[in-house]
Design brief:
By secondary structure, the chain is of the alpha/beta class. About 35% of the residues lie in helices and about 15% in strands. The chain is built from 6 helices and 7 strands, in the order ααβαβαββαβαββ. The strands form 2 sheets. A 5-stranded parallel sheet has the order 1-5-4-2-3. The chain has a two-stranded antiparallel ribbon with strand order 6-7. It is globular. The N and C termini lie far apart (about 45 Å). The model is unreliable at about 15-20 (pLDDT under 50).
Length: about 170
């Protein structure tokens, strides 16, 4: 009988204890799988649909868009008006102000939204589909260079949810 090395077993146990979803590690990724994981793992996290966010931004509503991706991802592109999570000041969490968080597909941002909700923040939402779905729909993207039409794909696996023509080179 052949056993897994101790390191592999340790990693497996740690992943299980951290709530890692193997359904997202193996097999084809799909928006349906992402939605299922979000519904199951983050049932109390409020969701905002892309169409609603787009309309609210067009109306000029005062929203805080918080990008919870890495600085590297943010610098490639972000939703216009978004601030990087590390630059989002705690005192910006004013009562009545709507905060919309996003990442690549909505998992990292769901965790962030849950954290804020646990801290008592009421008007905070996770953007369903996040920047990948936003870009896939042809909506505007900004960068320090101005308007762009590319997104950091995060990784080859997760980048499959992003239109290939939008992958940052």
């Amino acid at each position: 009988m052949r056993f897994l090395p101790i390191k592999a077993v340790t990693v497996f146990v740690l992943l299980m204890l951290c709530g890692f979803r193997f359904s997202l590690l193996f097999g084809e990724l799909s928006w349906e799988k992402i939605d299922a994981v979000l519904s199951e793992d983050f049932p109390d996290v409020k969701i905002m649909e892309i169409d609603e966010l787009s309309k609210r931004l067009a109306r000029g509503e005062n929203l805080y868009l918080v990008d919870v991706r890495s600085r590297e991802e943010y610098l490639v592109s972000h939703i216009p008006g978004a601030v990087l999570v590390e630059d989002f000041a705690v005192n910006s969490r004013l009562p009545g102000v709507v905060i919309v968080a996003y990442c690549s597909v909505g998992l990292r941002s769901a965790e962030y939204v849950r954290k804020l909700q646990n801290e008592g923040v009421k008007n905070v939402y996770n953007l369903r589909g996040s920047i990948f779905m936003w870009a896939n729909r042809g909506l505007a993207l900004d960068s320090p260079k101005g308007t762009v039409d590319e997104v950091h794909p995060f990784s080859p696996r997760w980048g499959k949810l992003l239109d290939k023509t939008l992958h940052a080179r």
